């Protein structure tokens, strides 16, 4: 087979894998939004059928022939003898960056999948499914003991998985790589220590002040109006309703059903107007990233976030740096009060701004403010590394959790349901996932700093109620590239530096006049 | 391979084909309900990908080996040497009916698919897609000439398809078999002549009376209340909201996404309250059939209507025989007026009953009343048979259409958009489909007659606001069996007779005191 034909075939096979993934995403989206109650068992079978068909296509024997024909070696890079390969690049890709990234990602997906024995794939699917069900019950009944053996099994299987994918590699780093490509546990550990050192005085300083009181938050905010405002803000951000939509689900999420079909979800609570509002902004931030994928990556495996940390940076940027800024509310507060006049009588924009930025140590990660959020992540990061290395046993997890919260945030859960059972992640085998949430905050602040150098003060932009320049910058610098660049490389290209806590800490210090 | 293993494998392969079909149904349901505007091109590619994968599974080489191993001969029946085959039947299937039907249907699906050359499958997919687009435009611009060549191509391809499926068979009968298994054009022709002979005096008699006037129909009926009433009626009928749901779409339809996931759609028009109301009842009638599939057929190719005529009988029974009956409204009218007090001031149940039963020859099939509806179908049936046989050319279709309407209904369309361009069916290659709509009316009346012999007068039942006995009878006699029986056999089992117009004509004569 000549190189040109092999390349076409590689692209066609990748497109099919991507397309099947998007059909699976529709099955899952429907399950969370509209599917009738009794359909869940059959839906699981439908999803499993397609996931199996997709897996077969990822590992079939043709790939290695095609890699040879195109001249792709062990690490997914073109062999020297075949590089530079003009056919690898399309005409818009003069540097060959897109072609090289395509080979890297397709090869990586294949290699990970072929190295994992079928039995392990099946064991993981079955055990994580059982473990999730056990988690639901154990959390409901605050009964950690019934979950512990499942967690132990999942951890062992995840370790087996990592060893199969990368026999020589560090177990935790291999797991991490599925979520934050190229990241390493020891580097993150150093990064998070630095972050913590900066956060502590900021938090202390904030907590030394009188607590902010905002009785208007206890009012009842009609859900239809919350939805109107949410859609208005998403439109303002640039979320294209012809290429996506907003629905309701128990847990907000963003998913991609096709290049022009990006769906975000939210949930509204009449008694907690911020819950839906910031979910709308957060998910639309993710949605903009997906809608912004450039023509050179669309429909391929490169049409995806560079990593979950970068993806989270897009949601956090809009949710916190924009959506919790004074400038944003200087523009939008009038509109907001017009929708909820009864709830906000006598409330000024400064009161409102203070209310959206209340900082308070709390037990539940998903309710945390932007200052304390990182503590929740750092606690989980340290505990999951210890669980993987064997330094911490599953039986000792609840105690270690309580100690950590006591140590870092000065509070302690009264039960495991509000403690180590609060998150679904570990029960699904998502070990190595949590750090990306904290990285998202760091990337967001670092990107915002770079952005301001180009387009000027964000406060000025948002006080004018203008999002065009911001979205333009995000698209050009980040969205369009999909996962052409690794997170590390993307961050360097955009900001001239590796990810580091300086910008996030500076942002917090300025905003809270603290630390 | 022993018989038992071969049988298990057959069942597993069938389950996969069924499941893929239901995933395709989700893609299509989503396209008609929630999919964002710009996603249609990619959605077409996703649907095509899965349809291709499903087709591959229907025709793969394993089937004929399995048929041999189980002992299935040419027509999908067990060979004498292997019958009776105890493994073919599960324990609930003592007569072996389910097993035999399963073999018949799986074999038929395979045989039809393997006999059609791949090129013809692709030609049909491409040309019907082009033809549908051409139809949309030609209808919009009332420009039949731009559609005619596409229609000619589709007819030729449908003829090729029929010849490939059944080289010895009658072309029209082969096409018909895809929608009404076992039906024959010449028999339908006789049946429809008889129907017509009975309908003419009924229609004449009705038209000789003063026209019914119902000014309250021109009021504005709030859509949220139409939706409340529609859901209430669907619940009353027995449509299970835990195993299905109601959504909005441009054209109402029912689709099956899984054994416990039956979705119906409707559309509401503030100025036409009957449009949504009778769509809700009609589609829930289809939905009940799908929700009622018995345990012995669930998840297999037998979990489907016996044919489209039988399927339509379920929707027509509820829509017309129940939903347009005086007894039904004696019970529901109070509830209805409570929802729309402004629209129905001074209107009595008799006025309302007359309004839901206005009979008037009209040009558009989907707006037709239950008396004139069959004329629309008979016209189409005769024209499509003539198009297939070559007695009518595509160029002469518009004229023949006008003549037919003049002859049968005494009215003539002013343009082709309201004439031979009004239906999408032929543009998609659905030739042989129309007769099932008229058969639905006949089956419905014939079933209702049999039902009343067992459970007593339907009027009594519905005047009490009770649907349990009716649904119970439908489930036991029709729904549970899926397509175990052919339409002909099912009709005989349930009513003791072949389908015939007597019951429908009697029903109309009694209801309209006419003919």
Assign a percent range to the helix content of chain A.
55-70%
Instruction: Tell me the quaternary state.
Output: homodimer
Report the uncertain regions of chain A. Answer: none
Report the sheet-strand fraction of chain A. under 5%
Distance between the termini of chain A: 64 Å
Report the order of strands and helices of chain A: HHHHHHHHHEEEHHHHHHHHHHH
- The number of E-state strands of chain A comes to 3
Q: Look at the structure and give the mean pLDDT of chain A.
A: 95
The tally of helices of chain A reads 20
Report the principal-axis shape of chain A. Answer: globular
Strand count, sense and closure of the main sheet of chain A? Answer: 3 strands, mixed
Determine Rg of chain A (CA atoms, Å).
23 Å
- Briefly note the structural class of the backbone of chain A: mainly alpha
Name the strands of the widest sheet of chain A in spatial order.
Answer: 1-3-2
Structure characteristics:
homodimer, 3 strands, three-stranded mixed β-sheet, 515 residues, 20 helices, mainly alpha
Quick overview of this protein structure:
With 515 residues, chain A is mainly α.
What does this structure look like?
The structure is a homodimer of 515-residue chains. Chain A is mainly alpha-helical. Helix content of chain A is 61%, strand content 3%. Chain A has helices at 3-33, 40-59, 62-70, 97-115, 118-140, 144-165, 171-177, 185-207, 223-237, 273-291, 308-322, 326-339, 349-356, 373-389, 397-409, 435-455, 458-463, 468-477, 487-495, 502-512, and strands at residues 244-248, 254-258, 261-266. Chain A has a three-stranded mixed sheet. In chain A, β2 (254-258) and β3 (261-266) form a beta hairpin. The radius of gyration of chain A is 23 Å and the shape is globular. Chain A starts with a helix and ends with a helix. The mean pLDDT of chain A is 95.
